[in-house]
Amino acid sequence: MKATVPITAASLKKACAQCNLLELCLPFGMTDTELDRLDELISARRKIKRQQPLYRTGSPFEAIYAIRTGSFKTDVLLEDGREQVTGFQMTGEILGLDGISNEIHSCNAIALEDSEVCVIVYAKLEELAREVEGLQHQFHKVMSREIVRDHGVMMLLGSMRAEERLAAFLLNMSQRFTARGFSPAEFHLRMTREEIGSYLGLKLETVSRAFSRFQEEGLVIVQQKYIRIINGEGLKKLIQHQAAR
Amino acid sequence: MKATVPITAASLKKACAQCNLLELCLPFGMTDTELDRLDELISARRKIKRQQPLYRTGSPFEAIYAIRTGSFKTDVLLEDGREQVTGFQMTGEILGLDGISNEIHSCNAIALEDSEVCVIVYAKLEELAREVEGLQHQFHKVMSREIVRDHGVMMLLGSMRAEERLAAFLLNMSQRFTARGFSPAEFHLRMTREEIGSYLGLKLETVSRAFSRFQEEGLVIVQQKYIRIINGEGLKKLIQHQAAR
DNA sequence: TTCCATGGTTGACCCATGTCAACCAAAAAA
DNA sequence: TTTTTTGGTTGACATGGGTCAACCATGGAA
What we know:
Chain A is of the alpha+beta class. Chain A has helices at 9-12, 32-37, 122-131, 133-159, 162-179, 193-200, 204-216, 232-241; strands at 4-6, 42-48, 53-55, 63-69, 72-77, 83-89, 94-95, 108-111, 115-121, 186-188, 220-223, 226-229.
C-alpha cells in the first residue's frame, strides 16, 4: 500500500463520470444518475512502476483495481519456480477479482510498464452495489466476462497448436487495441516473448519461431515488440481450418 | 426449459435451509435469518438425464443452477469440432455463471449422469442480493472461486506435463469427494477418458497410459472408472518435484 | 561514444505426446 | 441369453514443440 496516493475529494469528484475509459470499464452501461453515485467509489489512485507488483500471491485482499494507464500481467507460480501467466490486462480492465474468494490474492499482478490504477475498496463496492442496481449488474458482468475469457484461454491451451495459439493471441490483442481507439493492425506489445510463451503454454523459442513463420508467410511484420498485421483474415483462417490435434 | 418442474410453495419452503448441501453451495456462511429469505430464490427444480444438456452455447441466459444430485461437465466447441472441457461440476456447485456477461450461454453444460439442479432465476438473485448482504457476498465468492479455479486449470494446461496433470486431477477429485462426505481414497469417476483428456489437454490414450503407469508404480489402483488412491503423497510429490518442461 | 545486460532469433537435436491400429472389457440392446 | 456398441488399453511409429547452444539486436548505463 506504500505508493497509494489518497486523492482529495475535488480531484476525484466525477472520477468515473469524466473518465474517458468509461465505456471499457466497470461503469459501462450505467445511467447518468447511477454514474454520479460512483464518485464515492474511487478512494484513491495508485501508480505502479514497470515490473513492480500491484499485489502479490498471499497478500490480503481489500480492493479491486481499474487500470487507468498502462498494462499488467497476472501470473501464478509453482513452488518449483514454474510460472503461468494467466492474463494480460489493459486500460479499463479490472484486476484483483481473484482475491474475493478467500480474502487473499491468489496470483501476482505485475505492471508491464509504468501504470496507474483506480483503487476500488471492495467493502465499499459491495455496499454501493446493493444500492445501485446498474453497478451491481455491471460488476457481475465483469466477473462473468473474466470466467468466459478464462474458458477461451483453456481452449487455447488445451486444444490448439502453437501457431493457432499465437494467431489467436494476436487477434485478441488487435481487437483490444481497437476497442481503445488504437490501430487494429499496428501495435507495440508490452510483454516479452517469454511472457507470451508462458501465457500460451509455449517456450519463448517456439513463440519466436511462430512469429518468424507468420512473417515469412506475409501474415504479419514483426520487429521485436512492434507488430503489424498484414493479413488478419489469414490469421483467422489459421485458427479455424487447422487440423485437430 | 421443457423438463422444468415448477414446485409447489410447500415443497420448496426452506429449500436451502433444509438442504444437506448447504455447506457446499451458494448459501454457505449465511446467517439463519438470511437463510430464511432464500426460500424465495429457488423457483423450481429440474431433472436432467445423463448426456442431456442443462443449457447450450448460444441459448439465452436466465438462470444459474445449483447441482442437487449428479454431476456435469461444461465444454466449449470450436467450429472444426474440437472440444475443450472447461470443468467438471459436482453437487453443491454452481453452473451457468458464464451466461451473465452476454445474457447468452458461452458453453454447454452436459449431465454426466442423471442429475437434478435447483433453478435460481438470475433476476431474482440480483434482486435478493441487493437486500441480503450475506447472499451478495457469497455469490461474489462463488464467482471469484470459479476464476481462481480457472487459473489453476491454466497452470495445469500451460505448465505441467501429462502425468502431473493427471495427478493434480485425481487429487482434486479426491478432495472434492471428501468435502462431500465420501472416501478420499476410493471413488467412481463419472467421465470418460476422452473427457478427462479434453479437460487436461491430452489425448485419451495418454490419459490411459498415465493411469497404467500410476498403477505400475503403486500410486493408484484403476479399474476403468473406479479409482483407488494408494499413495496420495506420491501423487503430490509427482506434481511438486517434476522437472520443469 | 562504448559497454553491458536483456531480450530475441535461429539451428541441431531429442523426447513427450500425438496418431493409427489392433484388441479387449463392460454395458446396453436385442 | 447373444449381439452390438461404447469405452478402455496397449503397441509401433511420427512429429510438434522442447532443449541446448550460439549468436544478434536494442536500449540503457557509464
